[in-house]
Amino acid sequence: MASPRVVGPPVVRPLGEVTAHRISPTDTVRLAVLSGPAQGSPTTVVFEVWEPGGSQPPNSHPASTETFVVLAGHGRAHSDGHTRPIGPGDVLVLPPGSVHRIVNTSDTERLYTITVMAPDDGFAALIERGPAVALDPADLAVLRGATGG
After folding, report:
1. How many domains does the chain have?
2. Phi, psi at 3, each rounded to 5°
3. Closest C-alpha among 70, 93, 91 to residue 80
4. The whole model's pTM is what?
5. Which residues form the Cupin type-2 domain (predicted)?
6. What is the pLDDT of residues 55-64, one digit of tens each?
């Protein structure tokens, strides 16, 4: 007979308590884990902020699909030799194993996304090992706008 499933209470995290990180100290992208393994989820949801002109190095997730929902700003998505412009309202889906990077094409505006990594496959831990940095009022305004808050 199977063991009964233990269900815990829902997790509520006020946005003001969410901390962002840079994966490495010189990165131009800040990532704030909204939910992931620490909250009991096998999938990680992240709020990402690219500084003007910012990008992350080419990277890949062998076992995970990475989906970006662009909230504000404009950029270019590079994946396995393909380049696509991205902007508000776009949904970018990167399959497992793709080598990719996103570049903020603006010299003055930040690029914001909600990113879903499914499954997490260590992504939240990678982010949270990096140096902590603040989300500023402009970042929180974009995130609150995306959540209707």
Report:
1. 1
2. -70, 145
3. 93
4. 0.92
5. 48-111
6. 999 999 999 9
